[in-house]
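Table 4 source record.
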Amino acid sequence: MENTYNAQVSTTPEPAIIEVYRISRWVGALCACKVYLDDTEIGRISNGDKQKYEITSGLHEIRIKMNWSFLKSRPFSFKIKDGDFIRLRFDFTFGGFATFTSWWMVKAIFSGGKVIKIEQY
């Protein structure tokens, strides 16, 4: 008796995944931030939240924009391959003192509103 066993190998590549984390802070806590990948909105993130997104492999650019205002990030470029998992986090570039003294507005005006930083961790 001959045993024939045909194993099927999946040729579908694992998706590339990015996880975007918004650091929990009271600055801007009530506002959601929009996440843009290659100039297309892919989601919104609330204060202290994490979201995962399946994306295509290749070179990408991510941006974050405060939902109701002109506050935004500089573009963050990264390259990802099928099956990769990349963690990104974002935060404001100013703290509590700048918020109480309204110094953040001066910083935002002179930086073109780019007061959100994105980094890989």
